[in-house]
């Protein structure tokens, strides 16, 4: 039996009228349930998103609060560290020294060829240079920390060098007396000491001669000179103790910023075994020199940028007071090592360049106190030696005329110097070589 088109359409119409309402009702219920499920899911997602937003906002708020508290704590700690933290050497107000005009002295540059240098091998720096019997002696040290530092006295003839004596600590200076004995100024974390090594016991034993002054430990000894009559002069840079990391340099840098004026020069009489104060009130006694006859003492004053002169047999003088006047002043840098030539020429080495910021704030103990607390890196930027700054000068002690200026060409500050015939040998900060300049 065949179903025609009309019959098929009638069957569809009857089916739709019979089951269509149930199908439509089923679809409607299914769509409603689906919509309700979607709505519930949407509400749950919205509630979850809202909850996450609330939690995120709370977390961000806590983080911002913690960050603010942390930042305030860091700021307070920084303010305390730079302004209120106690320091061993509180700065003192002072009057900045004047600036000297150009002297018109002859200009000399450091030698650049190998003939103008003395290579000391593995050593990292030189604190003192002397000449004796045609040989050059240098106090050189090795090691990064003063606690572990061992200094050697190195002898060289320009081609060969040998360590003839070793000491624990920093050998800041040495001098030969008339009998050939060697006098040493040694600095350790425990304090300074004046020592003697007999010429027949080099490399075996060093005798401590002076370790205290009036019951107090000797401060940062910086230089030593032997007079023709046998007396030994030695300088104490400042009363502040030396840092274990930097030794003498740390003491001098601290005194430069603090300007306590506690540097002194003493004299030791080996015959009487007595110590007497020659000069006090020096703002960093960084160098000594004696006239050839031993009658006049010259003292480098770091902070006042001058060199004091006084009779060697005077006692209990004050820098700038009666019987102690400035021999040269207004120097272009902060003087350190001094050396006297046979013809009466005084050589002055500049450890650092003059800091305009420091002297502009000479009356501000607050700002200089911040620089003291800030540490070595900032301080080095204040006192770096420019490439065009003089590293040494020579002045005639007879008439006060300036004879020569030695330019550094960026070689660094001078820690030691010694004239030998027609050449001036210089030890430079952080250098393993002894440089020279023609005179």
Automatic annotation (TrEMBL):
UniProt key word Repressor: no
Domain of life (superkingdom): Bacteria
One term of GO molecular function: hydrolase activity
Membrane-spanning ranges: 6-27, 66-84
Family: Belongs to the SMP-30/CGR1 family.
Alphabetical list of PANTHER family matching this protein: LACTONASE DRP35, LIPOPROTEIN-RELATED
Annotated SMP-30/Gluconolactonase/LRE-like region domain residues: 224-349
Name the UniProt record assigns to this protein: Gluconolactonase
Keywords: Hydrolase, Membrane, Transmembrane, Transmembrane helix
Pfam families: SGL (PF08450)
Keyword Oxidoreductase carried by entry: no
Cited InterPro entries: 6-blade_b-propeller_TolB-like, SGL, SMP-30/CGR1_Lactonase
């Amino acid at each position: 039996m065949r179903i025609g088109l009309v019959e098929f359409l009638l069957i569809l119409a009857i089916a739709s009228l019979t089951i269509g309402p149930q199908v439509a009702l089923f679809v409607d219920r299914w769509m409603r349930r689906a919509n309700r499920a979607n709505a519930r899911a949407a509400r749950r997602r919205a509630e979850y998103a809202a909850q996450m937003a609330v939690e995120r906002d709370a977390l961000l708020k806590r983080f911002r609060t913690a960050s603010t508290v942390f930042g305030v704590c860091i700021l307070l700690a920084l303010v305390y560290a730079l302004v209120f933290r106690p320091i061993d050497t509180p700065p003192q107000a002072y009057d900045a020294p004047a600036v000297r005009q150009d002297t018109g002295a002859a200009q000399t540059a450091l030698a650049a060829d190998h003939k103008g240098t003395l290579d000391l091998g593995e050593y990292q720096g030189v604190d003192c240079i002397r000449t004796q019997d045609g040989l050059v002696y240098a106090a050189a040290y090795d090691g990064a920390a003063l606690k572990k530092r061992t200094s050697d006295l190195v002898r060289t003839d320009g081609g060969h060098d040998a360590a003839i004596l070793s000491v624990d600590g920093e050998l800041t200076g040495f001098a030969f007396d008339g009998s050939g004995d060697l006098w040493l100024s040694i600095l350790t974390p425990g304090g300074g000491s004046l020592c003697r090594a007999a010429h027949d016991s080099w490399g075996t034993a060093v005798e401590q001669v002076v370790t205290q002054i009036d019951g107090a430990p000797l401060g940062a000894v910086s230089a030593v000179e032997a007079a023709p009559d046998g007396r030994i002069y030695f300088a104490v840079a400042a009363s502040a103790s030396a840092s274990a990391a930097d030794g003498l340099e740390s003491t001098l840098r601290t005194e430069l910023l603090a300007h306590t004026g506690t540097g002194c020069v003493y004299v030791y009489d080996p015959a009487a075994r007595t110590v007497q104060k020659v000069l006090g009130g020096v703002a960093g006694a960084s160098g000594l020199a004696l006239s050839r006859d031993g009658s006049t003492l010259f003292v480098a004053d770091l902070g006042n940028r001058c060199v004091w002169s006084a009779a060697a047999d005077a006692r209990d003088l004050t820098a700038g007071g009666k019987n102690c006047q400035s021999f040269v002043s207004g120097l272009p840098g902060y003087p350190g090592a001094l050396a006297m030539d046979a013809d009466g020429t005084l050589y002055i080495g500049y450890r650092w360049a003059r800091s305009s910021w420091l002297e502009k704030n000479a009356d501000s103990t607050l700002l200089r106190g911040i620089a003291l607390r800030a540490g070595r890196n900032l301080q080095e930027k204040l006192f770096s030696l420019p490439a065009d700054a003089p590293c040494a000068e020579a002045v005639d002690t007879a008439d006060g005329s300036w004879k020569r200026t030695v330019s550094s060409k960026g070689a660094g500050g001078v820690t030691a110097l010694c004239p030998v015939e027609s050449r001036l040998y210089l030890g430079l900060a952080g250098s393993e070589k002894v440089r020279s300049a023609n005179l």
